[in-house]
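Why do we care about 3D structure at all? Because function follows from shape, and shape follows, mostly, from sequence. That is the central idea of this module. The next example makes it concrete: a single protein chain, its amino acid sequence, and then its structure expressed as tokens.
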Amino acid sequence: MKKVNESRISDTYSYIEDCYMRTGAYPTYREIQEAMGYSTLSLLSADISKLKSRGLLVDDGHRHVRLSKEKENHSYRYDFPLLIMCDAGINYSRLNDEEKTLYDAQDAYLKGDYELAKSLSESLLSSSRDQSVIFGARFTLCWSAIYTGEASYWKDFFRSMISYQPKTTSEKLEKELMAHFLTSLLKVKGNCPKWLEEGRFYNLRKEAYPFAGLLFIANGINNGEDKTPNVYEPLCSFASISNNDAVQVYEDLYLAIAYRYAEHGDYLSAHLNNAIKTCLRHGWLTPLVEVSKTLGSVLRPILDKEYGNISSKIDELAPVLADGYNKIYSSMVGDNPLRDLTFREVEVMNFIHVGLTNKEIADKLFLSTETVKYYLSSIYTKLGVSGRKELKEKIVKFM
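And the structure:
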């Protein structure tokens, strides 16, 4: 009797589970064969039959492999979690202990308890072996660094971001979204991927749509674009897809800012009031603090009239934000000659630093070699260097 390869069967199951958790889609037989190195589909079918007999997997009849119903109830997890809150909320009980800690850390940040957010995130970094959770903890530390002013967390996050190699096109796009959005918080102009400006959302998972909308609006505000804010409204409808109040709050606040610049008072008040109600329902102060300067003349009368006790708390946190933000901005932007580079250009430069060829860079970033050459040309122009050797010297000095 032929011996059963338990290790191979277990690895196959782990791959199918990971694929579902990361993308929300089930792999086909052919995808499993290529990913796991099966020599024939018949060999793969035999292993899947063994898993089916144990009640772990079922075939949906379309040559896709599905997890059992019990496994499907777990919320999606990604290598690049936009916000664990996208998966939590009413599904909080379905998260494991580490995911609940990450959720609590991000909730503490939104409530203005930055030390608790930092403590919980650091505990995950020291104890977790789940790369998705670790990435989420780094993201939270980077996010809260805007208040604490600890640029090391910001830099650590971007190092991990640049070094991560996406496994799929959707992961690649989400990596860009997150990096561009965080740099948009530093008021960087021209900070929107070309594919997003052109409205090419089709390679994104639906869970990433709200984040794409946020970046699109933030980029328009930072650029001072003279657009009717109504062009942003359709994007905000995507927030309802994930039932994510955190994203909805920021979309409302960003739209309020856009409507203020466009002098549309009624629309401004509608979005601002909606954001305030959602924040108070959850006890979140941070989003309101972040717009307290930009929308102060509109925000303050509303809060003073109906929520007087909140105004004093916002006044306490506003100087903390200003001090932390200035420290981060000075450290990350300041007089650094790399400040004018886009995230993609920094990413290309990092690969140059480790010695990759244009072809190797293109393969890693899902680009053509001509596109890589275009990025290099732009880098040379912005940094005032004439070639690869001089660029490497500048990288060593400033990275």
